[in-house]
Design a protein that fits this description.
alpha/beta; eight-stranded parallel β-barrel; two-stranded antiparallel ribbon; 10 strands; 45% helix; 15% strand; globular; Xyl_isomerase-like_sf
Length: 322
């Protein structure tokens, strides 16, 4: 496995400066935003696809620093019931896949999206309970009419361009658990896999190690994010895991995102890395920073140090067994 970073952390820096900083920390891979929520600060696929010279400059900027692009990421909602919003995210996805093929990048990361509850809905609807029965009817309509048809088509499109789709399992979207990912993969094809982020497993009450085993046995982990979560033992009893308070209400929230090692100890992260190795995952460990208690530089640096410690110890363990 190679340590990398989701470059949206450094969206305020020029691409070259950000790449220099990442390389100076000893990282080997970068995940680059290409639309949707991550934005296009470092890479606008439509522009690069139309300009071969700019495409070569972009590729050289990364490769000349000894870095490899692990994924292009355009997390959005291509199933949004408002057509203009869905179309914008869909176009970002399509352009990201085309650009990934040109760059030789294996994976495009995104969200599954979430539809509305009927054809003329205005907002997404995320059912999370089997009763009242309305929720079951909404869920069935969404998957049969929106989720499966859309992603079946996009999986074929991606496969035709030699690209895999890494869907981030994230609450609020149709694919948010190992079970929903595998359901879609069975229906749409093996181009569909997970961009697995432990932080989103923890706040849903899912053990990331078990999620890795469930998905890894099916060959369904295409990419991996490294981000932590801490559950507040008092606030969770008031607000539950589906806490709707803003992330800025850190003192009162049931849970919050943290840098690696500040929600769960290094031993837990070692167990996660070991599980990835056990199921045959040997690709990027991409650091994502959303820690409201640390600056970008502090959170990033501490995540790097903790993960480097884990990866070094894992490598030494491999050598010992040899």
């Amino acid at each position: 496995m190679k340590l990398g970073v989701f470059m949206v952390l450094f969206g305020g820096r020029k691409l070259e400066d950000a790449l220099d900083y990442v390389a100076s920390k000893g990282l080997k891979m970068v995940e680059i935003g290409t639309g949707g929520n991550p934005g296009k600060a470092h890479c606008n696929p439509a522009e690069l696809l139309e300009n071969e010279a700019k495409l070569k400059e972009f590729k050289h900027a990364v490769e000349s620093r000894g870095l490899t692009i692990s994924a292009l990421s355009c997390h959005g909602n291509p199933l949004h019931p408002q057509k203009h919003l869905a179309q914008a995210d869909h176009e970002d996805f399509v352009n990201s896949v085309k650009l990934a093929e040109k760059l030789g990048v294996q994976v495009v990361n995104t969200f599954s999206g979430c539809p509305g509850d009927h054809e003329n809905a205005k907002y997404p609807n995320w059912p999370v309970a089997p009763w009242p029965n309305d929720f079951q009817e909404i869920l069935a309509w969404q998957w049969e009419n929106k989720v499966i048809p859309y992603w079946t088509e996009q999986a074929k499109f991606a496969a035709d361009h030699n690209v895999k789709i890494g869907l981030e399992l994230h609450g609020g979207f149709s694919v948010h658990t190992p079970a929903t990912l595998l359901r879609l993969r069975e229906a749409a094809g093996e181009a569909i896999g997970a961009n697995l982020d432990p932080s989103h497993m923890w706040w849903q009450g899912i053990d990331p190690v078990q999620a890795i085993h469930i998905l890894g046995r099916a060959g369904a982990i295409h990419h991996f994010h490294a981000k932590d979560t801490v559950i507040d033992p008092v606030n969770v009893n008031r607000f539950g895991l589906t806490d709707m308070q803003p992330y800025t209400n850190m003192l009162d929230r049931a849970w919050q995102f943290r840098s690696v090692g500040y929600g769960h100890d290094v031993k837990t992260w070692a167990d996660i890395i070991s599980a990835l190795r056990l199921v045959g995952y040997d690709y990027a460990v991409s650091i994502e920073h959303e820690d409201g208690l640390m600056s970008i530089e502090e959170g990033f640096s501490k995540a790097v140090a903790n993960l480097q410690q884990v990866l070094i110890e894992e490598s030494l363990g491999d050598m010992w067994w040899v």
